[in-house]
Every structure is written in C-alpha cells, then in structure tokens.
Design a protein that fits this description.
Layout (H helix, E strand, L loop, with lengths): L3 E6 L9 H5 L4 E7 L3 H11 L3 E3 L2 H7 L4 E4 L6 H10 L3 E4 L7 H13 L4 E3 L7 H11 L6 E9 L3 H6 L2 H5 L10 H11 L4 E8 L18 E7 L4 E7 L7 E9 L2 E4 L9 E4 L9 E2 L4 H4 L2 H4 L3 H5 L5 H14 L8 H19 L5 E2 L7
Parallel strand pairs: 1-2, 1-4, 2-3, 4-5, 5-6, 7-10
Antiparallel strand pairs: 7-11, 8-9, 8-15, 9-10, 11-12, 12-13, 13-14
Helix pairs in contact: 4-5, 5-14, 6-9, 9-14
The structure holds nicotinamide-adenine-dinucleotide.
Nicotinamide-adenine-dinucleotide (NAD) binds next to loops.
C-alpha cells in the first residue's frame, strides 16, 4: 500500500481542518507540522500524536521526509510556499486563492509545469453536497444551454481582521474581488468546458472604518461581472464588511431548460426547476433529485465526511487529491482550474481601479 507522508503548514489554524481527512485516508499519514506560532503548532501536534514540529517551512520540507504538503497559511504565502515544495517535487494541496497577483500566478504555473509533483487548489466549496448534485445535473445536460449564474460570498469579518491581521491587508485592504474561488469554483464546474474571458468590477462605496479610524480599502460590496468564452454571464457579489448575517454559499444557475437557486438560509431550501422533470414551471426541492443523480460517495458518505468542515468539502477534496496522485492523473482542481477560479478576481482588482472597465482575463494554458 502506498504511504504518503503529509506536512501541514499553517498547522496552528486553518491547517488543522486537514488533519482528520488525511488521517482517515489509508494511503496517507500526517508526518510533520509547521507554523511560526510554535506553541499553537505544538498543541496541534499533541492532539494528533505527531512528533515532527517545525517553525521553519523549508526545514520541514528538507528534514521531515514529507512528500505531500498542505498549505494553510495566509494568502500571500500560497505561491512562495507552493514553489518551495514543487521545486523539491513535493505534491501541493494549497488553500485558496491560488495566488495574490498575476505575476506570481504565472510563476506558479511555470513551476507546476516543471515539477514532477502535482498541484491542487483546495477549493472545498466545489465538494459541498448540493454543489456536487447541481454539477451532475448540469453534466447530464438537464439545464440545456447554460448562460447565466450568480454567486455570493457574504462573510462579515471586521473582527476577524483584527485577529488574523493579514486579512486587513489582503482581504479588506485591496479593492475588487479578493476572494472569488468559493463562488466561482462550483459555477465553473457546472458550466463545464467554459472559462471567464473578461471581467468588470464595481463597488458600493465605503461605509465602515477599522478600529484605527481608517476606511477599508475594499468597497463594502463588490459586484464582479464575468463574460465567459461561450458568451455566458456570471455575476459575483463579495462582501466581507457589511453588518449582516453570513451567507457564503449562495448560487444560482440559468439554462434554456432549467434553473437553480440555492438556499439563502432562514428556512429557505435549495430549489430547482427542470423542464424534463416538471411540465409545470414551478419550484421543486433539489434534494428530491439526490437518489437519481448524486454520486454514491455523497449519497452514502462515511461519517468522516459528515463531520468535516464546509459541508464535507474539507474531507472530499483531500480524498480527490490523494486519488489523483495514486492514479498519476491531473487533480480535478489542478493548476489551470485553479487559475480559472483565481485570475478573474485578480483582474477585477485592476478593473475597479480603471472605472469598472471590462478587462481580459489571461488563459494560463497559454503561459
Ligand atoms: N477553504 C476555506 O474554506 C478556508 C477557510 C478559512 C481560511 N481559508 C484560507 O486559509 C488560509 C489561512 O486562513 P486562517 O483563517 O487559518 O488564517 P490564520 O491567520 O488564522 O492562520 C494562518 C496560520 O499560518 C501561520 N503562519 C503565518 N506565516 C507562516 C509562515 N511563514 N510559516 C508557517 N506558518 C505561518 C500563522 O501563525 C497561523 O497559525 C487563508 O489563505 C485563507 O484564505 C480557507
């Protein structure tokens, strides 16, 4: 049986969510942990019985014997830490987004192309049960021609900004869509063979100040419109500042033969109309289609999947990553899918600075 030794960086915080999914995979063991927060890292190590603890990431890569690494550190570290692993032919599962600038995104693509190791972006919302079901329905052609979708990530984090201080710069300190992948990821999987070719971004202004009295650089709500290669339109709203309850998982999809709207919470449920299933144009419950269309792995999930964070996404993404390496196949969210989900947000940051101009999104396959 193949055994992969996994290193987790950012192991005192987000990295912890990956422990159980790797520990219950028969092909992997958590071998080493790294975090500059030594005390927190040691505490994490004690809870799972890992003896190799590092505060220096390169030292973990060089000395611990890991051949897979999970990057759960702040956004600006995703590319530098991915590059260090890929240079050493160590497989990478990186937190989202894949990169914080187009220049470093390009560096990452070139490094993945050069490395013998595989890269996957940990876009866990693609694995949420309802999102997987909609993906299967779309794949079966039940929406007809799909031409419009919406995604919303509404996560008020003004307080969290002050605790995880990197967020004040990288999430609320830059204007535009700084965190697109949770919304765009599932939608792009539904649309299938399509990608975003241009974006335009506008904001709703600045209504909140940080505890130092400065306005956040990111506008409170931003809307990023995305034009796809097939002519479709995707509208993404990002809001990390407005006073309101969270809603990080709103999606909709419109095709010629059907439409879908996810739950907005507060008693709402995911609803769908498909021409082939219902003569009358009226909403039906999405869950009524589970028996027929949901893949068996989600229809009869192990308890570890049900216990994992983000609607089980934290579990399934790890299983897919490991399986891709065992099968020597491109991971399902490999470097180009990661770029398709990340680059539109980076271009939106230029668009909002240029009076909401429509700007082209590069295709990483051409780099
Ligand atoms: N996919 C999801 O659902 C999801 C959820 C939460 C966070 N995230 C992503 O995970 C990442 C971390 O977010 P978080 O909320 O856990 O932030 P955090 O600040 O709570 O945790 C980051 C951890 O990285 C450590 N760290 C920082 N610099 C380091 C370095 N050079 N070497 C080693 N360790 C270092 C910190 O000490 C901290 O423990 C972010 O990129 C965020 O976008 C994703």
């Amino acid at each position: 049986m193949t055994e992969f030794a996994v290193g987790v960086v950012g192991a005192a915080s987000r990295g912890r969510s990956f422990f159980k999914p790797f520990m219950c995979n028969p092909h992997t063991r958590v071998e080493a942990l790294c975090d500059i927060n030594e005390e927190g890292c040691k505490k994490s190590a004690e809870t799972i019985g890992v003896s190799k603890v590092y505060t220096d990431y390169e030292e973990m890569l060089d000395k611990s014997g890991v051949n897979m690494v999970v990057i759960g550190t702040p956004m600006p570290l995703h590319v530098p830490q991915s590059l260090m692993a890929l240079e050493r032919n160590i497989h990478v599962l990186s937190e989202v987004p894949a990169a914080v600038s187009i220049e470093e995104a390009k560096e990452l693509v070139l490094a993945v192309n050069k490395s013998k190791a595989k890269y996957m972006m940990a876009e866990n919302y693609c694995y949420i049960r309802s999102n997987v079901l909609v993906r299967e329905l779309a794949k079966a052609g039940l929406f007809g021609e799909m031409y419009f979708a919406e995604g919303e990530y509404l996560h008020e984090l003004k307080e969290l900004n002050e605790i995880t201080k990197w967020r004040r710069k990288w999430q609320t300190g830059i204007n535009g869509n700084v965190y697109p992948t949770h919304s765009l990821g599932p939608i792009l999987q539904w649309l299938g063979d399509d990608r975003v070719v241009s974006v335009c971004c506008a904001g709703s202004g600045h209504h909140y100040k940080d505890p130092r009295g400065d306005y956040y650089e990111n506008e409170d709500s931003t809307s990023m419109m995305c034009r796809t290669a097939k002519g479709g339109l995707i509208n993404l709203r990002l809001d990390m500042l407005s006073n309101r309850p969270h809603n990080m998982t709103y999606y909709s999809l419109q095709g010629t033969d059907g439409c879908y709207e996810s739950a907005r919470g507060f008693g709402d449920q995911p609803k769908i109309w498909l021409k082939s299933k219902s003569e009358k144009i009226e909403w039906n419950a999405l869950k009524d289609l589970e028996e027929e269309y949901l893949p068996d792995w989600w229809l009869h999930p192990p308890k570890e999947a049900l216990e994992a964070g983000h609607g089980g996404g934290d579990y399934w993404q790890v299983q897919d990553f490991v399986q891709a390496i065992l099968d020597d196949k491109e991971p399902p969210i490999g470097i180009h899918e990661a770029m398709d989900m990340t680059l539109p947000g980076l271009v939106s940051q230029q668009s909002i600075m240029q009076n909401s101009a429509w700007l082209p999104v590069p295709d990483s396959r051409e780099w």
